[in-house]
Amino acid sequence: MEIVILLGAPGSGKGTVCSRVAEIAGYRHLSTGDRLRAAIKTGTAVGREAKPYIERGDLVPDEVMIRIVAEAMTAETPDRRRFILDGFPRTEEQARLLQQFLRDQGGSLRAVILLEAPRDVLIARLAGRRVCRDCGATYHVVNIPPKREGRCDACGGDLVQRPDDNEATVRNRLDVYERQTASLIAYYEREVGLQPVDSARPLDVMVSEIRDLILADAS
Ligand code: AP5
After folding, report:
1. What is the CATH architecture of 2-118+181-218?
2. pLDDT value at position 121?
3. Catalytic site includes residue 190
4. CB atoms inside a 10 Å sphere around CB 147
5. Is the minimum distance from the CB of 143 to ligand 1 under 6 angstroms?
6. How far apart (Å, rounded) are the C-alpha atoms in residues 136 and 23?
7. What was the pLDDT predicted at 182?
8. What tens digit of pLDDT does each residue of 141-191 get?
9. HSE-CB for 191 with a 13 A CA cutoff
């Protein structure tokens, strides 16, 4: 098992970058936000537990999150256990639980990449984000528009705003990131080293830089 961690504030581009980089770098994209939204949609026990936290923009409890991640990773056959983690870990406790899980599995952490962008860029990205109701593809009304307004390029589904992209929840998510997740930067700098990437640049530039970082680190 081998993992790459992509850290960054809400709106820094974690999901967009992962969905483009994972396949070309030979990894599987594992997004905890996507897993939680799928659990809410299908009405599982995890989904019911997570829903109020997500609606407020707060973090879902650590023990729920490590269980989701461990189950998702071990569900893959051993030859496919190479993951880019998007949105996990988010607290030092999650980082420690992940290290323990990797030790138990005989796995390794290849790289930790941090996407950095100013708060005004993050807010503009979240305000303009649209996601496909059917396949989950992500767009931006100005930066990455679909070919046909309101329709997904990939499957033709309706493009909608994520319920947690409203102004009050976005403000809380950014505050929660600064309060609870930013300390992970110091943790990973201390423990394994961390590669910062300026994510306020055009998507293509970021994608090729991150792909090169991962492949250099994984070689
Ligand atoms: P999650 O889904 O992980 O949300 P998030 O961290 O808030 O991140 P986002 O998905 O909002 O942003 P992103 O960085 O992926 O940006 P994107 O690529 O879409 O989590 C949601 C909730 O689940 C949390 O609030 C929490 O409650 C819970 N949760 C999840 N994981 C958890 C955990 N580990 N522990 C506890 N709770 C957890 O890009 C944003 C927009 O910008 C898009 O419109 C995109 O098109 C555009 N864009 C991206 N890159 C560029 C670029 N380079 N140039 C121009 N536009 C760009």
Report:
1. 3-Layer(aba) Sandwich (3.40)
2. 96
3. no
4. 8
5. yes
6. 17
7. 82
8. 999 999 999 999 999 999 999 999 999 999 999 999 999 988 899 999 999
9. 14
pTM of the model as a whole: 0.95
Active site residue 96: no
pLDDT (tens digit, 9 = 90+) per residue, 42-78?
Answer: 999 999 999 999 999 999 999 999 999 999 999 999 9
β-pair type (82-86, 108-116): unpaired
Phi, psi of 15 (to 5 degrees): -65, -45
Q: Whose CA is nearest to atom 30 of ligand 1?
A: 33
- Ligand 1 atom at shortest distance from the alpha carbon of 69: 34
Supply the DSSP string of the chain, one letter for each residue.
-EEEEEEE-TTSSHHHHHHHHHHHHT-EEEEHHHHHHHHHHHT-HHHHHHHHHHHHTPPPPHHHHHHHHHHHHHTS-GGG-EEEEES---SHHHHHHHHHHHHHHT-EEEEEEEEE--HHHHHHHHHHEEEETTT--EEETTTB--SSTTB-TTT-PBEE--GGGSHHHHHHHHHHIIIIITHHHHHHHHHT--EEEETTS-HHHHHHHHHHHHHHHH-
Query: Where do the domains of the chain lie?
Result: 2-118+181-218
Any ligand 1 atom below 6 A from CB of 35: no
Cβ of 37 below 6 Å from ligand 1: no
